[in-house]
Amino acid sequence: MNADKVLDAKGLACPMPIVKTKKAMNELESGQVLEIHATDKGAKNDLAAWAKSGGHELVQHEEEQDVLKFWIKKGER
Which part of the chain is the UPF0033 domain (predicted)? Predict the structure, then answer.
C-alpha cells in the first residue's frame, strides 16, 4: 500500500504513538494515507480506536517480525 507519509514510532510506549500519529495526521490532507510503524503491542487497539473516533479509516494493518504497520486514511473532518 502506498502512503503519503511514513511515521516511525518504533520504540515508543503508549501514548506516544498516538500523540505522534495525531501530529503527523494534522499535516495531511483528507484522503491522504499515513503509514505508521510501531513496536508497542497496545498500538493495535489504540490506533484502531483513535482512527475510528477521529473519523479516519484504518485501511490496513500487518505485523512484520516485531514491527506493527498501520495505514490510516485521513477522514473529511
Answer: 7-31
Number of domains in the chain: 1
Of 4, 10, 12, 14, the catalytic one is: 14
Tell me the pLDDT of the chain averaged across its residues: 95
What contacts 56, CB < 8 A, 6 or more positions away?
A: 25, 50, 72, 73, 74, 75
What CATH code is carried by the domain that includes residue 57? 3.30.110.40
The answer, yes or no, to whether residue 51 has pLDDT greater than 70, is yes
Q: Is 14 a catalytic residue?
A: yes
